[in-house]
Amino acid sequence: MTLRFAVDAVVLDIEGTTSATGFVVDVLYPYSRSRFAPLLSERAEDPVVARAIAQVRELTDSPDADAVQIEKALNTWLDEDRKATPLKTLQGIIWSEGFARGDLVSHFYDDVVPALRAWHSAGLRLYVYSSGSVAAQRAWFTSSPEGDLLPLVSGLYDTENAGPKQEPESYRRIAEATGVEPSRLLFLSDRPGELDAAVAAGWHAVGVRRPGEPYFEQGVGDHAEAGAFGEIGITSSRSAT
User: What does 96-161 look like in DSSP terms, one character per residue?
Assistant: First the structure.
């Protein structure tokens, strides 16, 4: 059965929705873990790195933490899969450079890219809202197995420029920033708490359930459910798919 929505924009989660969480955990996490130390020691004066360092110190209540202690905190958060903004910022730097060097190529489920291209061609605006930093998102979409997908995307949002993903206010910020009425926005995610927050902000939402993903067994609560993007049909004010 195809789900039908009349919206003007689709906002995408990445992990578990467009892409496999396992790829992030098994490939990207170890890649960043092995590069935290040189980043902290060699580029501590870089404004973005310095800000992330200050945020780690604040979150750990350790104003005098040195590079070794900061790296330890980052690795602890990595083990916990904690969505800490400074962790995501530093990962984003490392991953962006890894993608640019060709060390990394991102992952997308087979049903995703055809749907994104079709929706974009039909006049829908596409946005990304992920706990991964904007820099990481940009690199992810630029370095896909099918080439640069970034031209399909109208905007990127993370926990720094939008806010926590399980708070309705974050979705209100995104609606305001995009200029799209909340009732004309559709959010796709595998996490029930995020779907709840989007709906509370007046959005439509679909829970994407893919076998093997961490939230598959939990389900998507009372939200509409799809196993692949091909099960979602969208009619926009510009065109129809």
Answer: HHHHHHTS------TTHHHHHHHHHHTT-EEEEE-SS-HHHHHHHHHTBTTB--GGGEEEEE-TTT
Which of 182, 178, 221 has its CA nearest to residue 202? Answer: 182
pLDDT of 26-81, one tens digit each?
999 999 999 999 999 999 999 999 999 999 999 999 999 999 999 999 999 999 98
Q: What is the largest CA-CA distance in the chain?
A: 57
Long-range contacts of 193-198 (CB under 8 A, 24+ apart): 193/165, 193/166, 194/13, 194/165, 194/166, 195/220, 195/221, 195/223, 196/166, 196/221, 197/165, 197/166, 197/167, 197/168, 197/170, 197/171, 198/11, 198/168, 198/171
β-pairing, 185-189 vs 204-208, is parallel
